[in-house]
Amino acid sequence: MTSFGEPDGFFGFLRDTPLFFRIFGGLVFTLVVGTFLFIIIKGLKSWISNNSAEVPIQVPVRITSLLSNLKIARGINSI
Prior knowledge:
Blueprint: H1 10-16, H2 19-52
């Protein structure tokens, strides 16, 4: 407690908490942060791998026409 009778804040609460709850809370916090870091690192590795991979073109293609006058409908009633 401070001199005015107010609580010590978070660290005062943490000091009064039983050891089991502090250990359990630390483990849960570590697991949550570790899971997020694992997902972020795994996603970054996959993204880097996909960006560095070369896309092989195996089928020869030939352009036969050019569609330049297209009307794009935007909504149910547009024609």
